[in-house]
Amino acid sequence: MTNLRQEFGDLTLDDSLVARERIAMNLQTALNTFAEEWGLLVSKVEIMLIDPPEDIKRAMHKQKTAEQERRAMRLLAIGEFEAAEQQKLAIIQRAEGEREAAIQVAEGKAKAIQLVNESAQQYFRGNAQVLKQMEMTEVALRDNAKIVITQEGISPTLLLGSLPVTVESTSSS
Questions:
Q1: Which DSSP string do the residues of 136-160 spell out, in sequence order?
Q2: Are 159 and 136 in contact (CB under 8 A)?
């Protein structure tokens, strides 16, 4: 018992929980030293029960509880970190998708403008220009848009923005 107490006295609380085999080997060596005088050999030492005093039991329980709480908190923190990482990746993916969609829409609009421009250059001549000017005038008048009246009357080209605008003031006496 004295040798057993001495073995435990040299250990920390953590070591005493997991060092059963090492303690048994040290005890076997110590017991063989004494048993040699009598011609005996101790072949194996097994520690069946370790029953520390109550204050040590309480300390061991507190330590084990604290360790379990620390592990639980660490696992929770790791879980939250991984969830945040996944959320960040999802936000990045969503932003990249929106960016790609915006690029495709812009490219589509550019292609449409290009086609309209090419068609206008090819087909928008002579009477087609006059017809478009009249259509724009009709739409402007129907929607009660503000128009400019010149000395020549309502000029559809003003609505298209191709004529310089001059403002004449008249004074009434």
A1: HHHHHHHTT----EETTEE-HHHHH
A2: yes
Cβ(142)–Cβ(150) below 8 Å? no
- What residue spans define the domains of the chain? 1-51, 53-144
The CB density around residue 28, as the number of other CB atoms within 10 Å, is 17
**pLDDT (tens digit, 9 = 90+) per residue, 104-143?**
999 999 999 888 888 877 776 667 767 777 787 777 777 7
Q: What is the pLDDT of residue 157?
A: 52
Question: Any residues with CB less than 8 A from the CB of 163 and at least 6 apart, and which?
Answer: 155, 157
Q: Which residue has the higher pLDDT, 95 or 15?
A: 95
pLDDT surpasses 70 at 167: no
Exposed, middle or buried, 56 (CB in 10 Å: 0-12/13-18/19+)?
middle
- Report CA-CA distances (Å) from 71 to 53, 76, 117, 134: 27, 9, 68, 80
